[in-house]
Design goal:
Blueprint (H helix, E strand, L loop, with lengths): L28 H7 L6 E4 L3 E5 L9 E5 L19 H12 L4 E4 L15 E5 L23 H17 L8
Antiparallel strand pairs: 1-2, 2-3, 3-5, 4-5
């Protein structure tokens, strides 16, 4: 088995769950989990995604969901949408499987945003009511908001919509 970083390569992992063209990096720990070269505690898997317990976790059941396609961030060129299409439903299923009413869904892009592994991934982090200091701890100090005006909202929205139109995104609001 020789996963490569070529977007038109094809690989099949040990269990045969990658019968489609994919892009894997042989030096990426998450890609090694996809191919079965690195151990993991898998809890859910589809054709395009895999979910496994985080090591080390920040709370019980802390789960990572990754596409079976190597891309550093969500916006790196080349990441096909179909590799992300089932991530939302998987997040929901993992949240149910964790058995907690409170949880965070976290996705970081880039080092300054807190990304520690250069493979796009999503965290489902439980927040048990009797353990409020585990997982993501959000307070007004750690998650500060700032005052803004309607003119600033309008400027931000206009800029975002223009960038979306420039990229040809079909769902951009008028």
């Amino acid at each position: 088995m020789d996963p490569t970083s070529s977007a038109d390569s094809e690989t099949t992992n040990v269990a045969g769950t990658l019968p489609h063209p994919t892009n894997l990096d042989p030096n990426c720990i998450f890609c090694k989990i996809v191919t079965g070269e690195a151990p993991s505690f898998k809890v859910y898997e589809t054709e395009h995604s895999i979910a496994f317990l985080a090591k080390p976790p920040v709370s019980h059941g802390h789960t990572l969901i990754i596409p079976k396609y190597h891309s550093r961030t969500l916006t790196d060129p080349g990441l096909p949408d179909e590799f992300l299409a089932d991530v939302g439903p998987i997040m929901k299923k993992i949240a149910v499987m964790n058995g907690e009413d409170s949880y965070n869904i976290i996705q970081n892009n880039g080092r300054t945003a807190g990304q520690s592994v250069d493979h796009v991934h999503f965290h489902v982090v439980t927040k048990p009511p009797n353990q409020p200091k585990l997982g993501l701890v959000l307070t007004p100090e750690s998650w500060p908001s700032y005052p803004t005006t309607d003119a600033e909202y309008d400027q931000d929205a206009t800029q975002m919509k223009q960038i979306g139109r420039n990229h040809g995104f079909p769902g951009v609001s008028p």
